[in-house]
Structure formats: C-alpha cells, structure tokens
Amino acid sequence: MFSAKLDGGRLICLADGYKADELRQLRKKQRFYCPVCHHEVDLKVGDLKLHHFAHKPDSACTVSHEPESLYHLKGKRLLYEWLKQQRIKAVLEPYLRQISQRPDVLVDDGKRKTAIEFQCAALSMTEYQKRTSGFLKQGIQPFWMIGGNRFKRLSNSFFQLSAFHWQFCEESGMPPRLVFFCPEQKAFLILEHLIPFLTNKTSASCRVLPLQQTDLQALSSIQKPSPYQLEGWKRNVRSFRMKPPRFLSKDARQIAALFYENFQIPLPFFPSEVFLPVASGSIFVQPVYVWQGYLYLFLMKHSSFRLKSAVLYMNQLVRHEELKLRWNKREKAVSAVTEYIRLLHDKGFLTKENDMYIPARQVSPGLRLEELLKRDARYFSE
Ligand SMILES: [Zn+2]
C-alpha cells in the first residue's frame, strides 16, 4: 500500500512523489501506522522497486490483501496517475469505514462514485461478492480490472478463462466483457463477445488500448465483434473434428454416449448444429456441444415443438444437474435456449408454423468429414 499514518496522525501518501533519500531520512525519525488497523507498518524504500508500506509478517489487518505484489502496486499507481491526468477526482486506497473496505482507487466524477479494484491475485467467489455488495450498499459502482498477469491467449480469438474470470461478469446485466490492465505493457486489454467453446476455452474479440491514448470513458464503450472471431470459431471446430481431445470430462463422455446410442456417431462427427456460436450461451459451464447437444436430442425426438417445451426440458436438465449454470440466473439460460432455437430457424434447420417449430428431417447422421466441414462453413459465416 501507498498510504500510512505518522505519529501525529497525519496521513502520508507515497504516490505524491517522494524521493528515495527523503524517505530514508524520514524513516530514521518516524514510525508509520496502518490507517485501518493502526498497527505499525514498515516503509520499504527501493531504487528499483516502488516505495511502499508493508504490514509486519504476523499482522492480521482486516482489509490488507498482502503480500501485495510489485505488479499490483505498479498497476494501481499507474491507474491513479492516469485518472489524475484526465482531471478526474480520484483517491488512492481510501478506507471506507462503514463497510471496512479499501478499494485500490475511488473515482468521483461528480455524478457517481466508482471503486476501481485492480485484481491480480486469486479471489474467492465469497470475497468477490462481499466486496461487490459492500460497494453497492454505499452507492458506489465497483469496476473490476483484472491484472494482465491473468490474461492468457490460446490463439488469435481464443482465451483461457476460468471461474475466476467469469465471476466478474456476474453482477452486470450487460453481455459479459472483461477489462484487463497490464502495468508492464501500460495498456488495457478488453475482451468482449465472450462465447465459450469448452469450459475454460472461450472465443472473444480482443482490443488493446494503450494507457496514454485511452480515457476512462473509452473503457466502457462496446464494439462490434471482430470478423476474426467467427473465422476463428470455424477453424476451431475444424480442428476439433480433425483432432478431437484425448481426455473428456464426465459431461462430455455422457453426451458422447447419448449421441452414439441415438445416432451412432462419435464426438468428432457431431452435427454442426451443436457447435453454434450463441452469445448468451456463456451461462452454461459445459462445452458448447454438451448444452446444445442435449437440446439437439430434444429437437430430434419431436416432429414439432413449442419454444416453451424446449425451455421446460432445459430447466429439467438444470434441476438434474446435467446442465450447470455459471451463475444462478435461470432467465439467462432461457435467453440462451431462445437464441439457439432462433438461430437454427434462421439457418433453415427449423421451420416454423404458427408457434410450432419443425425440425428438418433430412439431417442424416453419418455424414462424412468433408460434408460436415462444408455444413460447418455454412453455419459459421454471416
Ligand atoms: Zn492494517
């Protein structure tokens, strides 16, 4: 952390531009205390490292998330300076007594307050929810920025996202998007239009915004999906068919068994209809071909059906834990099913009479790989 109290109670903030020599002198005459727990803290002065305060190793400070990494210290300092350059009212590490929380930076633009949390370390769901609801209770909008150290690109348009990342999308009613900040690259990375393919492999459009060419407002602007994203999705389905994974999760094995039983086809030959890039599909934890696979089985068992019965069927799968939701939000799962059915209708796989959907019967299991890839191409283009 950058702030501490002096013997007289005055607050000192190291982000205010102290020189190393100055601080070494000060350290000889002064003791420093944590503004929250009032225990004595050490002033760490370094020529290479950022100057900062640290609790003694045995401290039990309620809001300290230490040991703070240099990466984290550097990041919050850069963010604070960046906000000040934009003449935005910002406070570094303010202690909010009513909720016993200390966000990295608190922003007040006159209209509303925003707490910026620069999250570089692991964070449990409970802690995330506790901190988020604490801010909201105070009328403060939390803004979680994820450390660039937790950004992992798998290919041009695929990223490794875990439950840690997804939790930051939970509260917002908006389509999921993630904002990363890397103090080393001095840039923000924005992931939008998140569509999971596997549990921890997600397709997204990625933008890099250099810190010095970006303002706070620009971080919330939403852009259209990049054309590379759909292209990447198509390539990914292709390689999944050519080189299927050697190890399958329990859920994947289960759907593979069901497809084999019903259509005598193995996983790499699954129909194109279970690999559709459905934006609201991120509500399901399992691979895309699992949740769409179950719905496909449902469609193929009915000569016609109503959207409502597809939703009821999905609800039943959720109740029996065959489908797992990423967040406890059933209405989002309903949107995913609706979007999926509409997409199949748009692509001509389903026809519609009044409010009944009718699956095309010509679908023949046992298509050869080349035919499948051709079908994929039709689905995965605009
Ligand atoms: Zn403390």
From TrEMBL:
Residue ranges annotated for the Competence protein CoiA-like N-terminal domain, each copy included: 16-64
Domain Competence protein CoiA C-terminal span(s) in chain numbering: 230-371
Chain ranges of the Competence protein CoiA nuclease-like domain: 68-221
Protein name per Swiss-Prot or TrEMBL: Competence protein CoiA
